[in-house]
Write a structure and sequence with these properties.
6 helices; 0% strand; transmembrane helix; DoxX; membrane; DoxX family protein
Length: 125
């Protein structure tokens, strides 16, 4: 039962990031009308740097796909982690309304990293 719950949580987490990455390329989800002014300025700055959003999108798609598969989940968690930190910081400083969801996703990511800590030890030794 525990493995099924873990799989579902990781599947949803991975699909969320794959969807987010694909949306950066195809813009199929509309932007909310009530974004804070700081968030609009931040998004404008990101789009001025032409290579940044495609890079984030590719990392989200690859990381999300890796996160879904149990064999590559440890790598996916590490790939997604910097993006996740950016999401949390963005919600802390620019859009606090989404902070709870961002923290839940960060906790899922940290949990997967913790569960796979033995796989990372070879990188440190």
């Amino acid at each position: 039962m525990k493995s099924k719950i873990i799989f579902v949580v990781c599947l949803l987490f991975g699909l969320l990031f794959i969807n987010s990455g694909l949306n950066k390329f195809f813009n199929y989800m509309p932007m909310p009308e009530d974004l804070p002014e700081d968030m609009l300025k931040l998004m404008e700055a990101f789009t001025v740097i032409g290579w940044l959003m495609p890079l984030v999108a590719v990392v989200e798609i690859i990381g999300g796909a890796l996160f879904i598969l149990p064999k590559t989940r440890a790598l996916g968690a590490i790939v997604i982690f910097p993006i996740m930190v950016g999401i949390v910081l963005t919600h802390i400083f620019n859009a606090p309304s989404g902070l709870i969801m961002a923290l839940v996703l960060l906790l899922i990511n940290l949990w997967v990293i913790f569960e796979n800590r033995k796989k990372y030890l070879v990188l440190l030794g």
